């Protein structure tokens, strides 16, 4: 199982501990590119992606494309502070 965490690059608080222990934390600079980032992670055989809700709001594919994919999980979590 491969897991990746996506956060906005200006968010300096989220996923820090996970990054320190070596987990894959991607800092997204252009939220409009979130769909291509997710697709690239799927192609790299990631099975789960954890993404903040504000960042997820930029995606058109999260529900339409991946909701019925049993081998690929997208977990949307609340973002405590607005960074956008």
Describe the model:
It is a single chain. The chain has 84 residues and is an alpha/beta fold. Helices cover 30% and strands 25% of the residues. It contains four helices and four strands; from the N terminus they run βαβαβααβ. The chain has helices at 16-20, 34-43, 53-56, 61-66; strands spanning 3-8, 24-28, 48-52, 73-77. Strands 2-1-3-4 form a four-stranded parallel β-sheet. β1 (3-8), α1 and β2 (24-28) form a beta-alpha-beta unit. The radius of gyration is 12 Å and the shape is globular. The N and C termini lie far apart (31 Å). The model has no long low-confidence stretch (mean pLDDT 91).
Give the structure's gist in a few sentences.
The protein has 84 residues and is of the alpha/beta class.
Radius of gyration: 12 Å
Secondary-structure class: alpha/beta
Q: Largest sheet at a glance?
A: 4 strands, parallel
Q: What's the helix count?
A: 4
The chain-level mean pLDDT equals: 91
> Could you tell me the number of beta strands?
4
Unreliable runs, pLDDT <50, ≥5 residues? none
What are the SSEs and their pairings?
Blueprint: E1 3-8, H1 16-20, E2 24-28, H2 34-43, E3 48-52, H3 53-56, H4 61-66, E4 73-77
Parallel strand pairs: 1-2, 1-3, 3-4
Question: What characteristics describe this protein?
Answer:
single chain, 84 residues, four-stranded parallel sheet, 4 strands
